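Exercise 4. Each item below gives a protein and its sequence. For each, produce the structure-token representation.

Item: Profilin (Macleaya cordata).
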Amino acid sequence: MSWQTYVDEHLMCEIEGNHLTAAAILGHDGSVWAQSDSFPQAKPEEINGIINDFNEPGSLAPTGLYLGGAKYMVIQGEPGVVIRGKKGSGGVTIKKTTMALIIGIYDEPMTPGQCNMIVERLVNDICEV
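Answer:
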């Protein structure tokens, strides 16, 4: 299965009538493995900040998490494993695997829990990545 298929069929899937707004699988270096058409163009410094927060949990909290120029307030996550952000009525879940970042962006009516479930379910399916 291609990485794009994982994005199209697993991350952008329907859950209780809702879909993620955007999703991507990125390498730790920021390289795009696959992404939805709606995924924002992530800047290298944004990816570096995310990777740094996985290595030094809490480093993004004072400044916020940026993705595609959008600022998210960092909320609870599992240090070193998952980063969650909130922006207005939506947010982002970023899960780190051995070689990749799995990113889901949502907006209402999707809930943070639904986004978390989609992203974390995919990570469990491809946990060796």
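Check: The radius of gyration is 13 Å.
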